[in-house]
Design brief:
The chain is about 75% helix and about 0% strand. Helix 4 (about 55-75) packs across helix 5, helix 5 runs parallel beside helix 9 (about 145-165) and helix 8 packs across helix 9. It has helices spanning about 5-30, 35-40, 45-50, 55-75, 80-90, 100, 105-110, 110-135, 145-165, 175-185. The chain has 2 domains: about 1-50, Homeodomain-like (Arc Repressor Mutant, subunit A); about 55-185, Tetracycline Repressor, domain 2. It is built from 10 helices and no strands. It has about 190 residues and is mostly helical. It is elongated, with a radius of gyration of 18 Å. GO terms for molecular function: DNA-binding transcription factor activity; transcription cis-regulatory region binding. Pfam families: TetR_N. It comes from Nocardia terrae. This is TetR family transcriptional regulator.
């Protein structure tokens, strides 16, 4: 039996993730059935679940992929830039609207919550490191602990995701992000 190349496996995995992203965006987490995932990826359930244990693993792989991409931006340009990128290209992040839907699972399913938090660690670490560097450079408010600033930015990020998911990505949100950015800067 011929061995499948690593490049072929990586391409197939990418094909699955791209199709799943579209499927989750269109139908939500619960509505992204195996049949719909098959249609969106153009692959059989056997091919999909050869690469991913189950739908949770597929969803969490998307979360990890996007968290990694967002962490790179957050580390160099900050979490607010990540949010600006979301506004500029909402179609790249619209699947995150499922985050509203999976809040119930995060609350009720400890295993899913642990896996989700594991995927979010990279973005959180990059954001905290950037905030600490900006604080040390005198660019951020010193009267507010870094953890509070992080919580504030996470809350804004969740709100932005909700707005994008509901189709309200153009409601003066750039100006809102300007206000958020100004609110965490050091006051002269």
């Amino acid at each position: 039996m011929p061995k499948v190349s690593d490049d072929h496996l990586a391409a197939r995995r990418s094909q699955i993730l791209d199709g799943a992203r579209r499927c989750f965006a269109e139908f939500g987490y619960e509505g992204a059935t195996v049949r719909r995932l098959e249609e969106a990826t153009g692959l059989s359930r056997g091919a999909i679940f050869h690469h991913f244990r189950d739908k949770d693993a597929l969803f969490l792989a998307l979360a990890q992929e996007d968290a990694g991409r967002m962490a790179e931006v957050a580390a160099t340009q900050g979490l607010i830039q990540v949010m600006r990128d979301m506004l500029a290209r909402p179609e790249d992040f619209d699947w995150l609207g499922t985050r509203l839907e999976i809040a119930r699972r995060l609350r009720n399913d400890p295993e899913f919550r642990a896996n989700w938090e594991e995927r979010s660690t990279e973005l959180t670490a990059a954001t905290v490191a950037r905030l600490e560097r900006r604080k040390a450079a005198g660019a951020l408010r010193e009267d507010v602990p870094t953890e509070v600033i992080l919580g504030y930015l996470d809350l804004v990020l969740d709100g932005l995701i909700a707005r994008i998911a509901s189709g309200h990505a153009n409601d003066n949100l750039e100006a809102v992000l300007d206000l958020v950015e100004a609110s965490v800067r050091r006051r002269e």
